[in-house]
Amino acid sequence: TEVVHLIAAGEVIDSLAAVVRELVENSIDAGATRITVSLWADQWRVRVADNGAGMDLDTLKQAALPHTTSKIHDRQDLWNIRSLGFRGEALHSLSQLSQLEILSRSATATQGWRLLYNAEGESIQVETAAIAPGTIVTVDHLFGNWSARRQGLPAIAQQIRSVQSMIQQIALSHPHVTWQVQQNDREWFNVWAGETARKILPQILRGVQIGDLQETTLEVPTPEETDSSSSVYVLLGLPDRCHRHRPDWVRVAINGRFVDIPELEQTILGAFRKTLPRERHPVCVVHLQVPPAHIDWNRHPAKAEIYLHHLSHWQLHVTQAIEQTLRLKPE
Ligand code: ADP
Ligand code: MG
User: Fold this and answer.
1) Probe target for ligand 1 pocket from 35, 80, 91, with the most ligand atoms within 8 Å of CB
2) Closest by alpha carbon to 169, among 21, 281, 8?
3) How far apart are CA 216 and CA 99, in angstroms?
């Protein structure tokens, strides 16, 4: 079982960027509006600090044990996943693959706690800590005992770029969060919060021509459910200049997470080609909010690929939303 566990851990945590993804998603699930990410790639160290709900001492002691999640209690919950995390694997995997330390203080507590965890996810040191409400998780010496794993990874420079694009993607699907990102104790980049992705995209696509940004949100019916609502959000930029060789820039998020869903990407590109000349290459973000029961996240351990039920229904409404956005005149 030891080996089986480690394979599972390695599937979820396969890089520095994956560490950042898991920690940051926990911060967002905890309601954080401010997240600071610090990276020391040469030391294989990542720290994520947030102003979210924090944890009490009991929760802290449980947090890195196998399959502890505060989010799934019965089978019904599995069909009702609203949070980004739900398997209760990330912190446990991190305790196996690194030195894990968590400082946390819940909003109502008068003091915080600092815990160190062993490779089984048990707390081996507990002390009080004077911190602001929120949580600070530090992952150090990632893959320190797994040198083959380190050697199999891309060069550090490439991993650093992956961390950056991971944070930018998550920022784009959670525009209400302000990000401060540091590398080797120095400021690296920031993303300031906004109402929608429209405020975020220009901050992360610097140097890329994006034109005037238009956005549309359509409330759409949910298949087989009359009392729940779904929505399609489209953010679209159409640079003036035509580029014969520039690729289209299209990203799709579903319920707060960017996913690879080629079927929907084809739909989006198809909607462009119906109206736009070949040389016009839009920049486009599509964000679907659908009832959790319509998504099966279990296609992929990192939740990057999903099954979306009633695909053709969503394809139809995405096409409508794009056509509507293309008709909007720049202000
Ligand atoms: P999951 O996110 O799937 O529930 P994790 O292993 O990522 O599993 O986290 C385990 C639990 O630890 C979470 O369910 C949550 O209760 C708690 N937790 C982790 N990170 C944070 C955080 N930044 N703020 C508050 N609680 C957290
Ligand atoms: Mg999680």
Assistant:
1) 91
2) 21
3) 45
Token representation of residue 115: 């815990």
Report whether residue 138 contacts ligand 1, using a CB cutoff of 6 Å: no
* pLDDT tens digits for range 44-82: 999 999 999 999 999 999 999 987 665 555 555 555 556
Q: Measure the CA angle with vertex 269, ends 233 and 326; round to 5°.
A: 55
Ligand nearest to the CA of 89: 1
CA distances from 50 to 3, 104, 296, 313 (A): 33, 9, 29, 37
Q: How far apart are CA 131 and CA 136, in angstroms?
A: 9
Backbone angles phi, psi at 102, to 5 degrees: -130, 130
Decide: 171 and 200 in contact? Cβ < 8 Å: yes
Q: β-strand 249-254 against 283-289: which pairing, if any?
A: parallel
- Cα–Cα distance for residue pair 132/112, rounded to 1 Å: 8
List, for residues 256-305, the tens digit of each pLDDT value: 989 889 999 999 999 998 888 888 888 999 999 998 888 877 666 666 67
- Tell me, using a 6 A CB cutoff, whether residue 90 lines ligand 1: yes
